[in-house]
């Protein structure tokens, strides 16, 4: 039996989470969402996901810091940074 595909999206803006959710409505994918890096890490301790999409600019823990933590504990998980900004200054 194939494992269900799970995607975790971490973004502090609910509108972005809702927009990404609409991409997966008719797909056989479980979409998980969290509004902070810490919530994302807490979720990962309970649920295995294959793909993580993280916003670059978030309060308290930016997307790069979050994905560094992910890589340390779940190195095989695919990680993507999402940003609406042209610069990379947090």
Summarize it:
This protein is of the alpha/beta class. Helices cover 32% and strands 24% of the residues. The model has no long low-confidence stretch (mean pLDDT 90).
CATH class, named Alpha Beta
Counting helices, strands and paired strands, the structural category is alpha/beta
**DSSP strand content:** 15-25%
Indicate the low-confidence ranges by residue numbers.
none
Question: What is the architecture at the second tier of CATH?
Answer: 3-Layer(aba) Sandwich
Q: Rg, please? A: 13 Å
In percent, how helical is the residue content? 25-40%
Main beta-sheet annotation = 4 strands, parallel
CATH homologous superfamily descriptor: Response regulator
Summed over residues and divided by their number, the pLDDT gives a mean of 90
How would you describe the shape? globular
User: What's the end-to-end separation, in Å?
Assistant: 42 Å
Number of strands: 4
What is the spatial order of strands in the main beta sheet?
2-1-3-4
Oligomer: single chain
In N-to-C order, the SSE pattern is EHEHEHE
Q: In total, how many domains does the architecture comprise?
A: 1
Secondary structure tally, helices: 3
List keywords for this structure.
alpha/beta, four-stranded parallel beta sheet, 90 residues, Rossmann fold, 24% strand, globular, 3 helices
Tell me about this structure:
The protein has one domain: Response regulator (Rossmann fold), CATH 3.40.50. By secondary structure, it is an alpha/beta fold. It contains three helices and four strands; from the N terminus they run βαβαβαβ. It is 32% helix and 24% strand. It is globular, with a radius of gyration of 13 Å. The chain has a four-stranded parallel sheet, sandwiched between helices.
